[in-house]
Design a protein that fits this description.
Blueprint (H helix, E strand, L loop, with lengths): L7 E12 L2 E13 L4 E5 L6 H8 L7 E6 L2 E2 L7 E4 L11 H11 L6 H11 L14 H13 L5 E5 L7 H18 L2 E5 L3 H7 L2 E5 L6 E6 L12 H16 L1
Parallel strand pairs: 3-8, 3-9, 6-7, 7-8
Antiparallel strand pairs: 1-2, 1-4, 4-5, 9-10
């Protein structure tokens, strides 16, 4: 077996759903890689298979064909070192902020010290909210609680599925900055699934464009300017956004 230096390698991945005699192919021959301590954004129109790709890579859904390797080991079931944050946050309404953050660690049987939890909450700007329930939090606060739950397990790979789609534009940009800061501080890798081109260009070192109807990768664009806090103000940022928008129209 060839040893890869990447954190993640996806080779010829496919996913087909069967319903009686009918079959629908959602992913078709998808191949991509992700180096360690790096980021990938996946963009494309609704229904092109972006979220399915995330679920298969994270081990939450079986593939129909192909392989997913994380640290050179086959990944076909959920792993402790892969964190997932969904668009709807996945918070339990009857649990407090503290209990929602600790849920994953408790399921894994991990004892979390109060100082570790407090440092993470401070890093994400949600200190002082331990006693509140999800319906008492803003959308941005709920998203950071979901992010804290995933980060508490120190994942090598973080999967973000449309994490800011329900937020207003200013809150969305603020949390994008927060994710960038945490990524640079903690050094994990992440994959962001989004339909927002500007978000993909701000957070993706590479950007994978999915085909509208074929379930495959149309192209992968390098984005070396990613990582600069003021990248949104650079002319190259707008040029990259325009290029990707045009490529998506042509796909």
């Amino acid at each position: 077996m060839v040893i890869s230096r990447n954190l993640l390698d996806v080779d010829h991945l496919s996913k087909t759903y069967s319903n009686g005699d009918a079959c629908k192919t959602v992913l078709n021959d998808v191949s991509l890689s992700l180096p360690r301590h790096d980021t990938l954004a996946v963009v494309g129109p609704s229904g092109c298979g972006k979220s399915t790709l995330l679920l298969v890579i994270s081990g939450l859904m079986p593939a129909s064909g192909g392989t997913v390797r994380l640290d050179n080991a086959i990944c076909n079931s959920p792993r402790r070192d892969v964190g997932v944050v969904f668009q709807q946050y996945g918070l339990f309404p009857w649990k407090t902020t503290r209990d929602n953050i600790l849920l994953g660690a408790r399921i894994q049987g991990i004892n979390v010290q109060d100082t570790v939890l407090a440092e993470l909450e401070q890093e994400l700007g949600i200190e002082g909210l331990d006693h509140l329930y999800p319906n008492q939090l803003s959308g941005g606060q709920r998203q950071r609680v979901a992010l804290a739950r995933a980060l508490l397990l120190n994942p090598k790979l973080l999967m973000l599925d449309e994490p800011f789609a329900a937020l207003d534009a200013i809150t969305r940009e603020h949390l994008q900055n927060h994710v960038l800061s945490v990524f640079q501080h903690r050094g994990f890798s992440f994959i962001l699934v989004t339909h927002n081109i500007e978000e993909a260009v701000f957070l993706g070192r590479r950007i994978a464009l999915m085909d509208a109807g074929m379930g495959g990768i149309h192209s992968i664009i390098d984005n070396p300017g990613m990582g600069e806090p003021d990248y949104r103000e650079h002319p190259v940022f707008f040029q990259k956004v325009l290029k990707i928008r045009q490529l998506l129209k042509e796909s």
